[in-house]
Design a protein that fits this description.
It catalyses: a 1-acyl-sn-glycero-3-phosphate + an acyl-CoA = a 1,2-diacyl-sn-glycero-3-phosphate + CoA. The protein is α/β, with parallel strands linked by helices. The protein is built from 13 helices and 8 strands. It has one domain.
């Protein structure tokens, strides 16, 4: 991260890091003293704690950087969003798509009930990865012989979830980059498939598993299409820490789970067709810079995340003043404090790097990886 971004990220990172450690400690206690007696109570407790932690990141986009998320959907679907369990699929367009999804969930009152399928390394990220692990996110090693059972067990464990549940799945399996698009286009052309223009070729195994295991108690699929408005540059964590705004457009197509086919091959085809629809929709967005103003749903920016952040800031500042006064009277104490600040800066940097798309220096590797992954799945399908 560049100098200005680092200076701004430090106080924000300190607040998130120490409040996150406090939440993680409470989660450990809930595992020890609540989960053995009631999984339902454990989940309710964790949903509240996740609201308190993740609202800080929503504040970062909403209030600090002024990132605007515009939602497009029909009124009938809008009336149901946030009131039912759903399987959420989306293209993976930017570095902060996951935060955009959290903003929409928070607006609809179900932030604490969001769950996702993530790569296994994510759970080792300081604070945020640990909180996801305690909150029963599903983590994959990208080895289907292992992941098939992990997915099946993970989905089955969510049955009986106490409040609105959103299970998010990035079906493309990786973030969109120009190099990966070129790889996907080459594969599609060689395989006789429709060549994508704005999305990658979906990897359907995880989606098929999700539909087969969730359809019993999840009534709908939310097919989200994410596009970045031409008004401002793409959102990145560095831009967000600097307080630089962006505008993100999200189209939501609600599909009743009952309308999806039954067989695995048919479900996979439905997924491919859905991404072709996304591609066409993104074509129109490229021309109009909108998903259709008649579908635009204005959503007010809530005060909740701001109140939570102000409360955390006051609490942590008071605790720091009380704890650090005796420490700062000695050189050893000052050295210890500087070490803590350095550790927090490293953790923030790790978090930011984990959200960034691959740079051009790895373009060739990205192409090879994408081709191999798509080709391998196509053979197994």
């Amino acid at each position: 991260m560049e100098g200005a971004g680092s200076l701004i990220a430090l106080p924000l990172g300190l607040m998130f890091f120490f409040s996150g450690l406090f939440i993680d400690a409470l989660q450990v206690l809930s595992v020890l003293f609540v989960l053995p007696f009631s999984r339902r109570a454990y989940r309710v407790v964790n949903m509240v704690m996740m609201e308190l932690l993740w609202s800080e990141l929503i504040w970062l986009l909403d209030w600090w950087a002024g990132v605007k998320v515009k939602v497009y959907t029909d009124r009938q679907s809008w009336e149901l969003l946030g009131k039912e369990h759903a399987l959420v699929i989306s293209n993976h367009r930017s570095d902060v798509d996951w935060l955009v999804g959290w903003i929409i969930a928070q607006r609809l009152g179900c932030l604490g009930g969001t769950r996702a399928v993530m790569k296994k390394s994510t759970k080792f990220l300081p604070v945020i990865g640990w909180s996801m692990w305690f909150s029963e996110y599903v983590f994959l090693s990208r080895n289907w012989s292992k992941d098939e059972k992990v997915l099946r067990d993970g989905y089955a464990s969510l049955k009986g979830f106490p409040r609105t549940l959103w299970v998010a799945l990035f079906v493309e399996g990786t973030r969109f980059t120009k190099a990966k698009l070129e790889a996907a286009q080459k594969f599609a052309a060689d395989a006789g498939l429709r060549v994508p223009r704005h999305v990658l070729v979906p990897r359907t195994k995880g989606f098929v598993s999700a539909v087969e295991n969730l359809r019993e108690f999840v009534p709908a699929v939310y097919d989200m299409t994410v596009a970045v408005s031409k008004e401002l540059p793409d959102p990145t964590m560095i831009r967000i820490f600097r307080g630089q705004p962006s505008v993100v457009h999200v189209h939501i197509r609600r599909v009743p789970m009952s309308e999806l086919p039954q067989g695995g091959d048919e479900i996979a085809k439905w997924c491919h067709d859905a991404f072709q629809i996304k591609d066409d929709r993104l074509d129109e967005h490229e021309k109009e810079n909108s998903f259709g103003e008649e579908l635009y749903i204005p959503i007010a920016r809530p005060l909740g995340p701001l109140i939570i952040v102000v409360t955390w800031a006051i609490t942590l500042l008071a605790a720091a003043w009380w704890l650090l006064r005796p420490v700062l009277t000695t050189w050893r104490g000052v050295a210890w404090l500087l070490g803590v600040l350095l550790a927090v800066m490293i953790c923030v940097q790790v978090l930011i790097m984990s959200t960034q798309s691959e740079r051009s220096s790895t373009a060739r590797k990205a192409k090879q990886k994408q081709l191999a992954a798509i080709g391998s799945e196509d053979k197994k399908d």
